[in-house]
Design a protein that fits this description.
globular, homodimer, alpha+beta, four-stranded mixed beta sheet, 19% helix
C-alpha cells in the first residue's frame, strides 16, 4: 500500500517551483501523491490546517507536515 | 543521467524527521540523493551556502534550495 503525500499550494511562484522540483521528485511507486490548490479548493483548508500546515507550499507525508520554503501563510488563503 | 539532490542537515530532530520522510521519499531511480551532515562535514557549509541554503534541514535539487521546516540557521553550524 502506498504512503499518502499531499502537496498543498496556492499557485504562487514559490509553490510552483516546489511542486515541480519536490512533489514531482517523490517516488510514485511508493507514494500516492495528490496536489491540492488551496486557492481553488478552499474546503481543503481545514484538512490542511488539521494536519499542521501553517503556510504554503507544504507537503504532508504520512500525516506529517513539511513546509517547503515560504510562499504564503494560510491566513492569506481564507475569506 | 540522474538529477542531483543533496539533503543538508545537522542531526537535529526536525532534520531527522525530514530526512526520514522527505529525502527518503525521493525517487532514487531518477535522483542521486546525497545526505550531508553539516555539523560533521563543516567543509561542505560553503557549498551549501553557495546553493542558497539558509537553514537546515534543506534539500538542494538540481541546484535549487528548498528549506524544509526549520531546524537551525546556518550560522549555528559554524565555528
Amino acid at each position: 500500500m502506498k504512503t499518502s503525500a499531499i502537496f498543498y499550494h496556492a499557485g504562487c511562484p514559490v509553490c510552483i517551483e516546489a511542486e515541480q522540483q519536490v512533489a514531482e521528485a517523490l517516488d510514485s511507486a511508493r507514494y500516492d501523491v495528490k496536489i491540492v490548490h488551496l486557492g481553488e479548493q478552499k474546503k481543503e483548508i481545514e484538512a490542511a490546517e488539521a494536519a499542521g500546515v501553517k503556510s504554503v507550499p507544504a507537503i504532508v507525508i504520512d500525516g506529517a507536515p513539511f513546509h517547503i520554503n515560504f510562499g504564503a501563510p494560510m491566513s492569506a488563503l481564507k475569506g
